[in-house]
Design a protein that fits this description.
Blueprint (H helix, E strand, L loop, with lengths): L13 H11 L7 H14 L4 E4 L2 H11 L7 E5 L4 H8 L4 E5 L21 E7 L8 H11 L2 E5 L7 E2 L2 E2 L6 E5 L12 E5 L5 H8 L5 H5 L19 H12 L1 H24 L12 E2 L5 E4 L3 H13 L17 H4 E3 L6 H7 E4 L7 H15 L1
Parallel strand pairs: 2-3, 2-4, 3-12, 4-5, 5-8
Antiparallel strand pairs: 1-9, 6-7, 6-10, 8-9, 11-13
The structure holds pyridoxal-5'-phosphate.
Pyridoxal-5'-phosphate binds next to helix 3 and helix 4.
Length: 376
């Protein structure tokens, strides 16, 4: 494709830290870039218990372990979500209870959560779609009233804010992605923040193979042994070296995403005024990170025709997600609560346009011009 859907941001400064890691060989015990990244999140985003993982998928699986999710427990989540959001809990034998989304930003509709709560409900999973916060004030009220945990999937929202708080601060546990398709990337990586400190001690056991290794290395245990379920969740030092460089450049990287996002919005506004497409419209208090730019077409048929038209011009545009409850495995692992008013219909209209750090204005204008000629 002449204009790809995404390219991982490379600022040019990553090489320095990667070379330093290779030269120093500190891959175990003392892992300076792991420490630097984790301290960075504590210092800059108020996440004092932030830990790097190999992926956001792993972070979600770790969240399910940390919350002690068991067979028969129920976890409420949007059906418009990535498969890892549901898999993490299905793997523990839990039932995914899908709830409808708001039609504009595709965030879980907080007004439909209470009706989905039963005496088996353990947690609510929220997804900051496109780096835009959910209505955490309302969700927190519901979670407190029913004594439920909040798992905030912030895979998309690194560097985005709601009011004066960075996303990732709204869950008992929050998860992050630094995979190749995210604004801030280390090729493949993730993070988890434990805001609810009561979960911390168990968390460390699950995080490090299911052992008390952390306490052993700190001299707090005389033996290092198997304590509970776990896996090899921590990220590698080499990936952390790349990630730290990107974190140092987060304003530059996210700033470019926002610049391109605003330009798309401005240049496509006329198509929206003519009633041909719908543009994203994040709430004013949400300082998003422009993780993705999506438009909504009239219906699925028009979206598919548009994808074909853009492909013919060597422009890659993609849609996601196939709602989990209508996927092959979705109804085996869960159920939809209430009516699916917007999840299916809105997801069928949604199309993500190419957007990446190194995208030139000329490339963006080419995408816009293709859209204008499709709708002429
Ligand atoms: C909302 C959401 N959660 C989790 C993930 C999984 O992220 P990772 O690729 O880091 O495992 C993704 C992947 O894109 C995602 O979109």
């Amino acid at each position: 494709m002449k204009i790809p859907f995404f390219k991982t941001a490379i600022t040019g400064e990553e090489q320095k830290y990667i070379s330093q890691t290779l030269a120093d060989g500190k891959f175990f015990a003392e892992r300076p870039f792991i420490a630097k990244c984790e301290t960075w999140f504590a210092k800059n985003h108020g996440l004092s218990n932030f830990f790097l993982t190999k992926s956001c998928t792993h972070s979600l699986e770790l969240a399910a372990l940390a919350l002690d999710i068991k067979t028969g427990d129920e976890v409420i989540m949007p059906s418009f979500a990535f498969v890892a959001c549901a898999n993490a809990f299905a793997l523990r034998g839990a039932i995914c209870v899908f709830v409808d989304v708001h039609p504009d930003g595709m965030a879980i509709d907080e007004t439909k959560i209470e009706a989905a709560i039963t005496n088996k409900t353990k947690a609510i999973l929220t997804l900051n779609y496109a780096g835009v916060a959910c209505n955490y004030e309302a969700i927190k009220r519901i979670a407190d009233k029913h004594q439920l945990y909040i798992i905030e999937d912030n895979a998309h929202g690194v560097g985005a804010k709601q009011g004066d708080k960075f996303l990732g601060n709204f869950g008992d546990v929050s998860t992050f992605s630094f995979d190749h398709l995210k604004n801030i990337s280390c090729g493949q990586g993730g993070g988890i923040a434990i805001k609810n400190e009561k979960l911390l001690e168990n968390f460390f056991v699950h995080y490090e193979f299911g052992t008390n290794r952390r306490n052993f290395f700190k001299g707090k245990a005389d033996r290092y042994e198997w304590k509970n379920l776990g896996s090899n969740f921590p990220l590698s030092e080499l990936n952390a070296a790349m990630l730290f460089s990107q974190l140092e450049n987060i304003e530059k990287i996210n700033g470019r995403f926002v610049e391109l996002w605003n330009l798309y919005h401005e240049k496509l506004d006329n198509l929206q005024t003519q009633g041909k497409i719908t543009l994203p419209n994040p709430p004013i208090e949400s300082i998003h990170n422009a993780h993705c730019f999506f438009i909504k077409t009239k219906d699925e048929e028009e979206r598919n025709a548009l994808v074909k038209f853009l492909t013919g011009k060597e422009i890659s545009a993609q849609f996601h997600y196939t709602p989990l409850h209508s996927s092959e495995f979705g109804l085996k692992a869960g159920k939809f609560s209430g009516e699916d008013v917007f999840t299916t219909s809105e997801s069928k209209r949604l199309l993500r346009l190419p957007l990446y750090y190194n995208m030139s204005i000329t490339e963006l204008e080419e995408v816009v011009s293709a859209l204008l000629s499709f709708y002429k």
